[in-house]
Design goal:
The structure is a single chain. It is built from 2 helices and 8 strands. It has 131 residues and is of the alpha/beta class. It has 2 domains: 1-59, Roll (2,3-Dihydroxybiphenyl 1,2-Dioxygenase, domain 1), CATH 3.10.180; 72-131, 2,3-Dihydroxybiphenyl 1,2-Dioxygenase, domain 1, CATH 3.10.180. The longest helix has 12 residues, at 16-27.
Amino acid sequence: MATITWDHIHLRTADPEATVTWFEKMLGAEIIRSNQNGKPRIDMKLGGANIFIAPVAAGDKVNPAPQVPYQGLDHFGLLVSDIDEIAADLKKKGVQFTKEPHSPRPGVKICFIRGPQDVSIELLDRNPKYT
């Protein structure tokens, strides 16, 4: 069987600077600035994943983000440790929670936050202490 691994997530935004600033401030993303075809490019590295930022300009005919939950790619999840501490810190920073931290099953505690462009982000802590 062929080997398959993750390469990137592609995020479209009308405001690349505000988007990467949010991910850097709220979740500690590493911002990577470069040039592509003579134009500035901004990408991020978060939790080992590459996130490519695609600027959206007026007239690009890009549909607005759907309201969650919806069919198709619904959210992305980030594995964390000490979710309660992280959630408290994010609340101090003003992050909007769409689902508060809770344990949906033994050994797991999760919450959902709203990112830029209404991206739904799950924070997930796998620990036997959660029952």
